[in-house]
Amino acid sequence: MAFFSALGEKLNHIFSKLVNRGKLTELEIKSAMREIRVALLEADVNFLVAKDFISRVSEKAVGETIIESLTPGQQVIKLVNDELINLMGGQNEKLVVAPNPPTIILMCGLQGAGKTTFCGKLAFMLKKQGKKPLLVGCDIYRPAAIEQLKLVAKKADVPCFEKGNQKPVLTVKQAVEYAKKFAFDTIIVDTAGRLHINEQLMQELQEIKSAVSPHEILLTVDSMTGQDAVEVAKSFDDNLGITGVLLTKLDGDTRGGAALSIKAVTGKPIKFCGVGEKIGDIEPFYPDRMASRILGMGDVLTLIEKAQSAVDEKQLKAMEERIRKNTFTLEDFLVQFEQLGKMGNLADLIAMIPGVGAKIKASDIDEKQISKFKAIIQSMTTKERQNPDLIKASQRKRIASGSGTTIQDVNVLLKQYNMSKDMMKNMNNPKLARMLGGRKF
Amino acid sequence: MGVFSRIFNGLHKTKKSLEQKFDGVFENVKITDDFYEEIECILLSSDLGSKTTEKIIQELKDKVRKEKLKYTIDCKKALKEIMINILENNLEKNSFPVVFLVVGVNGVGKTTTIGKLAKQYTNLNKKVIIAAADTFRAAASEQLNVWAERAKVQIVKSSTGADPASVVFDAINSFKAKKADVLIIDTAGRLHNKKGLMLELEKISKIVKREIPEADYKKIIVLDATTGQNALEQVKSFDEAVGLSGIIITKLDGTAKGGVVFAIANEYNLPIMKIGVGESVDDLLDFNAKEFVDSIL
């Protein structure tokens, strides 16, 4: 996920001037802050929010502690980081669950923000968590919107309740009855995209709200939104009292400043983000992690969590054992590739690795290369996989033709494998393990 | 709601006060630094971005100095001229037969825009064919089908998951056989940083060029007016992929001003063809630089 990385790169550039500099003068802080302001504005942070942000950080930075501190550059980074976290709002917030089911979730937002797609993702996620969600189609305006929701529901393997072009408020009421009757515990109501200044359509949402008192009213916002994001969020909040925000299309290269401003203006938490076109591409929003990502520190925690949910624990244990004994084979290598595939977009994952995000552009990563590698290993015999030393020139030729690749490709793979093996060896080195934050491999 | 909502309300006031100034209530107010700051606020809040805003204000200051302007009313006129100048470019009329390849990121309003565009050409008695090459998004072709019915035009489509290039190929054949005037190709919304999807678009574009070289070929990017500075990246990537010929800005009926097009106009010589101002079939208007600038100032 290249989320915020452009802003991160920019701030990195600014801070590289600050770091390792000893003491800072007021003037230097001022000029750094000017650049931060430009970076924030180019990232679409609302200009008033940016202004306030700068004045808050400057105030703290110019204070004595920073000037007299031994590493003022680091202090400034910490201050900017803290303020960014502050701006995006404390801890990650979970979905509200009604004490008496069904929990009713009402979706709202502008046209094209990604409501319908997100309905499917939410339903899919809840289902995976063992819930029994029901999707409700209330977009009676956009052509084929309900059709789209039905298809999305099918993908999530969740039923879709719809009454064609019937008045939405009526449909929602019936859906609640239906949910009670058939023991659905969560209702997700998809509504038509509407402009925040369209009074008539806003009233429609208010009617739904007063009819069924939703537990969550989630505003779906396109993460590429510019300055207008605050206007939109404020308007929906004033009219409906939203309970949270969903941020979509974060798999793009937008710097995502809208995320910062919306929270600042409405005070409502960003609960989830959409990070791809697949039904499973939904993630909780972690303000603290996002802040460090903005600062170019990568997002180690998200990376680790992603890996954990995708990797089979048993396989991991077995591999760990082999790494320890230094018997890492090509079969393990294959398992690694397969798990990489399960974790989702490789480019996203790489962007999360600290220090790498700025160096490798998402477009540089070739997913096809991975499938090529997989094909090569799959064309080897079991013996060869366990003992790669057996692979000589004639074997390489056979493997290449078996996998539809070239001998060079096979050589590249074997080289990569040897490099990985060496790296694994180092993992057993206690010094390195400490550097990795004491995480066991 | 915290401190920010107060600041935010302040924004409206700033805007209002400046509007009053501009509307001639304070015709005799002299130009001050505060005045420039207020202009900066307006431009930033309209998504012009910090670089373009700075550039415009610098140009304005130069002009004020050169023409010895003293009052805000003259300043407004000068500012408008500068801004109109950036956006004005000669939109060449297309000849027939014409092929429109409509591209853009997800959710900007491509399908809706195509529906409206088709209607406009049928109103001009042109024979229009629509190609539903968004075979990815659920129910995309169903949505386009409704628009095709509204505009009473033929639509060439395939099932979800089909190869979009093959839909385009079929549409071109049908276009040639029926001797139609306008072919509009709807493509799946794609984020511009997805390499594979951009390559797919390149492939589609190549097919158009190869199969129907005699047609006037326009590659249009649809931009959502609410989009911020990311629109620049969008234009850059799509331009690299297919070589854009123009822009359509949608959703200008909201409160967003779409000011990022000033930055785009500065960097790319792309005309704005149309603007979308609503959901009904007639809500696609010709672009007018003066009106566009008026809506910001």
**Chain oligomer state:** heterodimer
Q: Radius of gyration of chain A in whole Å, from Cα?
A: 25 Å
What is the β-strand count of chain A?
Answer: 8
Low-confidence stretches of chain A: 1-5, 296-304, 354-360, 432-441
Q: How much helicity do the residues of chain B have? A: 40-55%
Helix content of chain A: 55-70%
Secondary-structure blueprint:
The complex is a heterodimer of chains A (about 450) and B (about 300).
Chain A: H1 5-18, H2 26-42, H3 47-62, H4 64-68, H5 72-88, E1 103-109, H6 115-128, E2 133-138, H7 145-156, E3 160-162, H8 168-181, E4 186-191, H9 199-212, E5 216-222, H10 228-240, E6 244-248, H11 257-266, E7 270-274, E8 282-284, H12 287-294, H13 300-310, H14 313-325, H15 330-342, H16 346-352, H17 367-378, H18 382-386, H19 393-403, H20 407-427, H21 430-435
Parallel strand pairs in A: 1-4, 1-5, 2-3, 2-4, 5-6, 6-7
Antiparallel strand pairs in A: 7-8
Chain B: H1 3-22, H2 33-45, H3 50-66, H4 72-87, E1 98-103, H5 110-123, E2 128-133, H6 140-151, E3 154-156, H7 164-177, E4 182-187, H8 195-211, E5 216-224, H9 230-242, E6 246-250, H10 260-267, E7 272-276, E8 284-286, H11 289-296
What does this structure look like?
The complex is a heterodimer of chains A (441) and B (297). Chain A is an alpha/beta fold and 441 residues long. Chain A has three domains: 5-88, Up-down Bundle (Four Helix Bundle (Hemerythrin (Met), subunit A)); 103-296, P-loop containing nucleotide triphosphate hydrolases (Rossmann fold, 3-Layer(aba) Sandwich), CATH 3.40.50.300; 311-341 and 364-435, Signal recognition particle, SRP54 subunit, M-domain (434 Repressor (Amino-terminal Domain), Orthogonal Bundle), CATH 1.10.260. Chain A is 57% helix and 10% strand. Chain A has 21 helices and eight strands. Chain A has helices at residues 5-18, 26-42, 47-62, 64-68, 72-88, 115-128, 145-156, 168-181, 199-212, 228-240, 257-266, 287-294, 300-310, 313-325, 330-342, 346-352, 367-378, 382-386, 393-403, 407-427, 430-435, and strands at residues 103-109, 133-138, 160-162, 186-191, 216-222, 244-248, 270-274, 282-284. Chain A has an eight-stranded mixed beta sheet, with helices on both faces. In chain A, α1 runs antiparallel to α2 and α2 packs antiparallel against α3 (47-62). Chain A is flat and about 75 Å long. Chain A starts with a helix and ends in a 6-residue tail after the last helix. The model of chain A is unreliable at 1-5, 296-304, 354-360 and 432-441 (pLDDT under 50). Chain B is α/β, with parallel strands linked by helices and 297 residues long. Chain B folds into two domains: 3-87, Four Helix Bundle (Hemerythrin (Met), subunit A) (Up-down Bundle), CATH 1.20.120; 98-296, 3-Layer(aba) Sandwich (Rossmann fold), CATH 3.40.50.300. In chain B, 51% of the residues lie in helices and 14% in strands. Chain B has an eight-stranded mixed beta sheet with strand order 3-2-4-1-5-6-7-8, with helices on both faces. In chain B, β6 (246-250), α10 and β7 (272-276) form a beta-alpha-beta unit. In chain B, α2 packs antiparallel against α3 (50-66). At the A-B interface, α2, α3, α7, α10 and α11 of A face α1, α2, α6 and α9 of B.
